[in-house]
Design brief:
mainly alpha, 400 residues, Growth Hormone, Chain: A
Length: 400
């Protein structure tokens, strides 16, 4: 492994650690520091999700700088946004501004992270290395989650004090990443990490990738919002239970994600796309039947049904970790390498459009018809994933 790749792994690990210190506790921060209502909590999602739509504009405007330099800017934004909230407790409106800044940096970095990682492989097996990337990311997110758990449990961290040490630490980590990106930029002299477009691109040749990304936007929102809500609202489970399940899912992911990468190299994209589609269909059908039983009180709210719900929650997390399949698939169908970052950023924007829509429509479905229909709808839409797997021709240029 060359020095550029080793340095990138350090950057990846620190990014995961910094995000692990912040993303999973923001809801607690909003509640403890601002006593937000459910209505206000909904409003906060707009400045948090809007950067997912804007990242394509930011990357297109700064494309002349190259991916690594744009990534530097993204880390500065992430650091500024979260550190400001660590050093003082601003008014609610000002807090939303800093949340937006932090989120803009984070969302801008996501497509660049994958683009830079793929560009540094230099002949390495793509599936195996992408799996290793994601495995490292998951491992350090898990480490951060454990620190968060013990930090709050023993009083090291708090959101009711003027300063929030956990956010200050996260901001410092993002600054360290910025410095490491400067070093990486000095190492990398080839042009593969610099793309040529001055605006986003849309190519019909990538239509199947766009379909997969849009579907994932729906699936992701259900994973993040409605999957845990089955446990919280229908089974009255508290944050400690959700945190413990997330830790278990992370532990499984440390081994599961690298395995996905090896399977891509061994079995090819087509078979893994089948596995991706079938995993979503299975998870959401089972979640639908369980949530119907809990909602209608036709199955027990204790014992084996609850354990089964826990298992489905963990499987849900594992299904979400199969996103590397979409990235490697895109890599396999690129017309030219310069398309990678603009296409990934366009994909994130598409993802967030449907995510925002899904958050509102899913809530309506839950209230009017029942939670099970959200999951049945997701399972039905996942049939389109299965269709994509069918039409990708084995042995063609679409097969990695």
């Amino acid at each position: 492994m060359n020095r550029e790749l080793k340095l990138f792994f350090i950057i990846l690990a620190l990014t995961a650690f910094g995000l692990g210190l912040t993303n999973d506790v923001l809801s607690n921060y909003f509640k403890d520091a601002y006593q937000v209502t459910a209505y206000q909590r909904g409003l906060i999602e707009f400045p948090r999700e809007l950067p997912g739509l804007l990242c394509i504009v930011v990357i297109a405007a700064l494309t002349f700088l190259g991916d690594i330099k744009i990534a530097m800017i993204a880390q500065i934004l992430s650091a500024l946004g979260i550190a400001a909230l660590g050093f003082f407790t601003p008014t609610f409106t000002v807090m939303l501004i800093f949340i937006f800044i932090n989120s803009l940096g984070m969302h801008t970095f996501f497509p660049l992270q994958e683009s830079i990682g793929l560009s540094l492989l230099k002949g390495q097996p793509v599936g195996k290395m992408m799996g290793l990337y994601k495995g490292v990311f998951t491992a350090f997110q898990l480490s951060a989650a454990l620190i968060v758990f013990f930090g709050f449990k023993y009083g090291l961290f708090s959101f009711i004090t003027e300063t929030k040490l956990i956010f200050i630490i996260a901001g410092a980590i993002f600054i360290v990443i910025f410095v490491l990106l400067i070093v990486l930029d000095s190492f990398v002299k080839n042009t593969e990490i610099k793309h040529e477009q001055t605006s986003f691109i849309y190519r019909k040749e990538y239509n199947l990738y766009y379909i997969l990304v849009i579907l994932y936007g729906v699936q992701k929102q259900i994973m993040i919002v409605f999957g845990p809500w089955v446990l919280i609202d229908l089974l009255n489970k508290k944050a400690d239970t959700i945190a413990l399940l997330a830790v278990i899912g992370g532990l499984v992911g440390v081994f599961f994600i690298p395995a996905i990468g090896r399977w891509i190299d061994r079995f090819g994209i087509k078979k893994l796309l089948y596995a991706d589609a079938l995993s979503f269909i299975g998870v959401y059908l089972l979640y639908g039947f369980l949530s119907a039983g809990f909602f209608q009180q036709t199955i027990a709210l204790t014992g084996i049904p609850v354990l089964l719900a826990y298992l489905v929650f963990i499987l849900d997390r594992m299904s979400s970790q199969m996103g590397i399949i979409r990235t490697v698939y895109l890599k396999s169908i690129l017309i030219k390498n310069a398309d990678l970052t603009p296409t990934l950023s366009l994909g994130i924007s598409m993802d967030h459009v449907v995510s925002i829509i899904c958050a509102y429509t899913g809530g309506i479905i839950w209230k009017v018809w029942g939670p099970q229909y959200i999951f049945f709808l997701a399972a039905g839409l996942s049939l389109i994933n299965l269709y994509v797997a069918v039409i990708v021709k084995k042995g063609s240029k679409n097969e990695y």
